[in-house]
Amino acid sequence: MPKPALLLPVPASPPGRVQRVTKESTRDKVYSSLRNAILSGRLHCGERVKEIPLAEELGVSRAILREAMQQLVHEGLLESNSYRGARVIELRPEQIDEIVEARILLEGRAVRLAAERIHNAQREELNAFEKQLQREKDPLRVGQFDFRLHQRIWQISGHATIEKLLIQLTSPLFAMSLLMRSKENRDHHASSPLPRGTHKRLIEAICQGTPNDATRELEAHLTENWTAIRRRVAEFIAREEAEKL
Amino acid sequence: MPKPALLLPVPASPPGRVQRVTKESTRDKVYSSLRNAILSGRLHCGERVKEIPLAEELGVSRAILREAMQQLVHEGLLESNSYRGARVIELRPEQIDEIVEARILLEGRAVRLAAERIHNAQREELNAFEKQLQREKDPLRVGQFDFRLHQRIWQISGHATIEKLLIQLTSPLFAMSLLMRSKENRDHHASSPLPRGTHKRLIEAICQGTPNDATRELEAHLTENWTAIRRRVAEFIAREEAEKL
DNA sequence: GATTGTCGTATTGTCGACAATACGACGAAC
DNA sequence: GTTCGTCGTATTGTCGACAATACGACAATC
C-alpha cells in the first residue's frame, strides 16, 4: 500500500499572467512546503526528517532541501545534530513558559499599536475573522484560524520587527499545540476546546481603540490558553517517558 | 598589490586533545567567520558579498558558504535578492527605532531577571567587565566590550529564549553602529564617545538586586545611546543620497 | 538623440556524486 | 551472561560542474 504523501511535491512555477516580477526560488517553495507540513501537523513533533527520501518526495536536490531545512532550524521548527539528522522540535514545558513570557511582552506592544492604528476596513475584517472562528467546530481548524487571526493583528500593528519576532516565536508553539490535539484525538483523550471569550474581548478592545484594555485582554487570553497547553504537554511527556520504561 | 584579507581562511579542524565531543562543522566555522567579519567591521554595511571569491578566500565550497550565508540572512545581517546577490544589511532610521523598541521590551525583562538571579561570582565578573570598559579608549573596542557586556547580562538572566531573540535583534544594530564609527573616523567627523554613566548605574542596579531600578536604568541607557546613533545614521544616509545626485 | 532590441558575461541557482560519520549488529574474550 | 571490539550500512557533510538569470554594453530603429 502506497503510504499517503506527507508533502505535496513542489509545483512547477505557475505561468503568471504577466511574468511575475518576484520569482519564487525553489528553495523558498521547499521552505514553505516544509513549514506548512509542520504547521499543519503532517510532519509531527519529534519526527525524524531524513534528507534523501524527503528530497525525492519533493522532487528537488538535497542541497536545496538542506538550505530550506537550515532556515527552519534557525526558525526553531527543526533541530539538527551533526551527522545525526534533523527532527521536528519537541518543546519542554519550561520552554513553553519562556516563549509565552516573551510573547506577552512583544504581543502586548503589538496589540497596543494595533488598537492605536487600526482602520475601519481592518475593523470589519477582524470582526468577520472572529465570527468565522466562533462558528468553526473542528479543533484543528480553530487552531489555524487563531494563528492567522493573531498574525493579522501583528500586521495591523505596523511594527515589522515585532511581527517578525512573533512569527518566529509562536511557530514552534503552534506546532506543539497541534501535536497535542492530534495525539489527544488519537488516544481518545478529552480535547477541551480553546477558551474563546477572551478572544472576543481582545478583538473588541482593539477595534474600539482602547490600547490598555487590549494589552490586558491579550495577557489574559495568552495565559489562560497556554497554561492549559502547558499542562497537557507535561502530561504528554510524562506518558511518553512512562512508555519508554 | 594583494588586497588585505577580509576574512581569515577557515582553519582545518584543530586536533583537540581528547577528540572533542561536539565537532564543529565546516558550515558553523564559516558562519562564525562571516559573522565576525561583519561584527568587527571587516565586511562593512552595504557591501556586496559575492559567493565565488568568498568561497575561495575561505577555502570551502560554495554550497557550504551558501548555507552559512542563508543563516545570516535569516539572522538579519545579510539581505539577498534572487540572482542579484547578497549584501551586508544597511538599516534605515525607522528600522533602528523598531529594533530598539523591541529590544527595550525584551532586555527590560532580561535585566529584571538578572537582578533577581545574579550570583556573587557573577557580580564580580560584571564589575570587572565594567571597569575594563571604562578604561578602554579605542571607540571600536568600546563598542565590542559593550556588546559582550550586554550579552553576559542576558546570559545571567537565565532566560534562553529572550537571550536568543536579543542576540538576533541587536546584531544588525551593532554592525550598523560599527559602520557609523568607522565612516566617521574616515571622514574626520567628530566621533562622540558613548555615554557611560547610565552603563555604570545599570550594572550597579543589577548587582544590588533591585529589578525595578535595573529596568529603568536600561531604558535610560538604551534610549540615550541609540537616539545618538539614530541621528548619525540619518545624517549618514542623507550624505550618501547627496553624493549619488 | 532617445528608445528599444539583442547579446555577452558575470553571478547565482540547482544538481548529482563522493567522503566522512554515527549507529546498530554481530562475534570474540572474559 | 556480559562486555568490548569490529565492521557494515544508512545517513549526513562536502564538493565541483552545469543551468538559469540579471545586468550592462552595443547596435538598430524611429
List the main descriptive attributes of the protein structure presented here.
4% strand, DNA-binding, 245 residues, homodimer, mainly alpha, 3-stranded antiparallel β-sheet, Four Helix Bundle (Hemerythrin (Met), subunit A), Arc Repressor Mutant, subunit A, disordered N terminus, 2 domains, 9 helices
What does this protein look like?
- The structure is a homodimer of 245-residue chains.
- The first copy, chain A, is mainly alpha-helical and 245 residues long.
- Chain A folds into two domains: 26-88, Arc Repressor Mutant, subunit A (Orthogonal Bundle), CATH 1.10.10; 93-244, Four Helix Bundle (Hemerythrin (Met), subunit A) (Up-down Bundle), CATH 1.20.120.530.
- Chain A has helices spanning 26-39, 51-58, 62-75, 93-117, 120-135, 139-157, 160-186, 197-208, 211-244; strands at residues 48-49, 78-81, 85-88.
- The longest helix of chain A has 34 residues, at 211-244.
- The interface between A and B is medium-sized, with 24 and 24 residues.
- The structure holds a DNA duplex (30 and 30 nucleotides).
- The termini of chain A sit apart by 32 Å
Largest sheet composition of chain A: 3 strands, antiparallel
How many whole angstroms does the radius of gyration of chain A measure? 19 Å
The structural class of chain A is: mainly alpha
β-strand number of chain A: 3
CATH architecture of the largest domain in chain A: Up-down Bundle
Uncertain segments of chain A are 1-21
Number of helices of chain A: 9
Can you list the strand order of the major beta sheet of chain A?
Answer: 1-3-2
Return the average pLDDT of chain A rounded to an integer. Answer: 84
Order of helices and strands of chain A: HEHHEEHHHHHH
